[in-house]
Amino acid sequence: QVQLVESGGGLVQPGGSLSVSCAASGFTFRRYSMSWYRQAAGKERELVAFITRDGGNTNYADSVKGRFTISRDNAKNTVNLQMNNLKPEDTAVYYCSTQIGSSYFWGQGTQVTVSS
Questions:
Q1: Is 53 exposed, middle or buried (0-12, 13-18, 19+ CB in 10 A)?
Q2: What is the 3-state secondary structure (H, E, C) of the chain?
Q3: Do the Cβ atoms of 79 and 71 come closer than 8 Å?
């Protein structure tokens, strides 16, 4: 079955950097685009970054453009989100996701906290 497992979250000071990763299994990873979402406490889940199946195209939420970079390794079935110049408002649970047919799949999420 489809499994998405995030890792790499933690506590970081404002202005710092952090990378989160997602290991995928149970489907042919290279055939599907991947996304990172986040959900802050009391807020709706929002799309942060998207990458096409070959990694050739990416899109970002305006709030993270120029600070976050999404990448993937189709040989390792992983998708990563490098986050630089982090701000307190980036604090959230970060989820990786993919859509296969009409179904959406999510990982369990990893907490990122930006605080001094």
A1: middle
A2: CCEEEEECCEEECCCCCEEEEEEEECCCHHHCCEEEEEECCCCCCEEEEEECCCCCCEEECCCCCCCEEEEEECCCCEEEEEECCCCHHHCEEEEEEEEECCEEEECCCEEEEECC
A3: yes
**What's CA 37's distance to the chain center, in Å?**
6
Per-residue model confidence as pLDDT tens digits over 65-113:
999 999 999 999 999 999 999 999 999 999 999 999 999 999 999 999 9
Instruction: Let me know if 67 is exposed, middle or buried by CB neighbors in 10 A (0-12, 13-18, 19+).
Output: middle
What pLDDT sits at residue 60? Answer: 98
